[in-house]
Write a structure and sequence with these properties.
The chain is α+β, with helices and mostly antiparallel strands and 511 residues long. Helices cover 49% and strands 10% of the residues.
């Protein structure tokens, strides 16, 4: 794996900041600001060691490392880099950037036969990716010009480019998780320390270890003190983890039973509401009153919720910068939570997990013996494309079977799984962060699976909490009610539908 990591930003000695922050807690003469050399003192070393041993590690979050990373798989990003809340990341998008023939990694350690089978899988999926775009283009073109009929009279390269991006967004469902990526990735020193400890865990420990080693090497090359932070940290081997022990006990056969049980419970839904507080609306009203400090007689429940959730009153809801994380009333929304069980494709969940404040249960990754995929709506709507897609999935699973028979381990096998492979998990969020998520993902431009799951979730919340539910709306509707302009914040990316005139029960997305 040709992983490339370079450190773009980060002070030469973040340890000086760590020690200065720790000493400031006990300083009677103002903040302690240290130069790099001061971090080498005996006092500084005692503070470093004692705070690390005691777990007083917020001092290690003052500062950040920004890495430019290339040559990593989509699987390691989903499974490791993005499976926790403490990071920021911007990666190249398969929705908008076409994947090239050489944009795939081949795992290390394969023998000649295994490498030949693996590369056969890459060739099959890339060829299918190109053909699916051709099969989908006429239908996507028709749907696009039905939204923008005037543009059909004056076809421009811009319009055809937009249609092509829609086809490649859906055709990528057949691409394997071995597709390579590049990204900016920013973490605190504390998070990098934790990554160092847990790199050898599911799902792709070999790639994770190589990536973390490269990140640590870049930091240590600029900050020699960081290596001392790692000296006494326990590194958790895969075999020691409870996840591994349970995996060894149950294995692949039990996964089939789990998938069947999960899908039976989920039914025809993408997302199912399985947990909520029956008295959420009443408690939310109480929270509002506790902030404003008025009685229920002066502010009844429904009025309290109206003030909080209706953007005609609470215009901060219409701000694209999500200022509700800092407003007093925003804290009231954090008192209400909802839990959903969900089934998305791997590529859909890769988008979904970026909402780090609505955390999900990242599963141990399995590739079953038969295709287990989510079919994108645009593929469903084109019979020839659906037939071809499912045929190619069958062929891909035959190759995966041959790869297993050749002796390749499960870590290698998962790289050939397609983006379409189903991921089943639970997700929980409080109302403040769910409101933000729905405000973004009810937009018709959002990834199609997350849009559909968001529509389902809002409808289910509305069924149990009608006052809360009626204010879970897309950005354009919230901005219209807040009298923010323009109503659609997407500019030239406007979807072509006046969604702000529709109720959630009337949402229909054609492309």
């Amino acid at each position: 794996m040709a992983i490339s990591v370079s450190l773009l930003s980060g002070k030469k000695s973040l340890l000086a900041t760590t020690i200065g922050a720790a000493r400031t807690c006990y300083s009677g003469s103002g903040p302690i600001v240290l130069e790099d050399i001061a971090a080498q003192s005996e006092l500084s070393e005692r503070i470093r060691v004692s705070t690390l041993q005691a777990g007083h590690n917020t001092t290690r979050q003052h500062g950040a490392y920004t890495f430019v990373i290339e040559g990593v798989s989509r699987q390691v990003i989903w499974s490791f880099l993005h499976s926790h809340p403490f990071y920021n990341s911007e990666q190249v998008s398969q929705r908008y950037v076409e994947v090239k023939k050489d944009n795939f990694i081949v795992p290390e350690g394969l023998n000649e036969v295994q490498r030949e089978v693996f590369e056969e899988g890459i060739q099959l999926t890339f060829g299918a990716y190109k053909k699916l775009q051709d099969l989908l283009y006429p239908h996507a073109e028709e749907a696009y010009y039905s939204l923008f009929p005037i543009r059909k009279k004056n076809v421009k390269k811009e319009w055809t480019g937009t249609i092509k991006k829609r086809t490649q967004e859906v055709a990528r469902y057949i691409l394997p998780l071995a597709a390579s990526s590049y990204l900016y990735h920013t973490v605190s020193p504390l998070t990098l320390m934790r990554m160092y400890q847990c790199a050898n865990h599911f799902n792709v420990p070999r790639e994770q270890k190589k990536l973390v080693e490269a990140m640590v090497a870049e930091v240590c090359a600029q900050d020699v003190t960081f290596a001392r932070e790692l000296e006494n940290l326990k590194k958790y081997d895969l075999e020691e983890s409870l996840e591994y022990k349970l995996h060894q006990r149950f294995g692949l056969g039990f996964q089939r039973d789990f998938s069947h049980e999960f899908d039976e419970e989920l039914g025809d839904s993408i997302s199912s509401l399985v947990g909520y507080d029956v008295f959420a609306q009443e408690n939310l009203a109480r929270a509002v009153r506790s902030i404003v400090q008025v009685s229920s007689q002066d502010m009844p429940d429904e009025e309290a919720l109206e003030f909080l959730l209706n953007s005609r009153h609470n215009t901060a809801l219409g701000d694209t910068n999500n200022v509700m994380t800092l407003t007093r009333l925003g804290s009231a929304m954090a008192q209400v939570t909802y839990t959903f069980m969900k089934k998305l494709s791997h590529t859909g969940d890769s988008q979904n997990q970026r909402h780090r404040m609505t955390p999900e249960t990242t599963p141990i990754f399995y590739v079953g013996e038969k295709p287990d995929v989510v079919v994108a709506s645009l593929i469903e709507e084109v019979p020839a494309a659906k037939e071809y897609f499912l045929e190619q999935c069958d062929e891909l699973w035959k190759i995966i079977g041959r790869l297993r028979e050749s002796g390749a381990n499960e870590e290698v096998v998962q790289y050939l799984a397609p983006n379409a492979i189903a991921v089943r998990f639970l997700e929980q969020g409080d109302l403040r962060n769910l409101h933000h998520k729905y405000r973004m993902r009810l937009c018709y431009n959002s990834q199609e699976e997350i849009w559909r799951s968001s529509v389902e979730e809002v409808q289910q919340i509305k069924a149990v909490h009608p006052i809360i539910g009626k204010y879970l709306l897309p950005p354009c509707t919230i901005r219209k009610d807040a009298e923010a302009r323009p109503i659609c914040p997407e500019g030239t990316r406007y979807c072509g539908v006046q969604v702000w005139k529709l109720g959630v029960e009337d949402y229909v997305r054609t492309i």
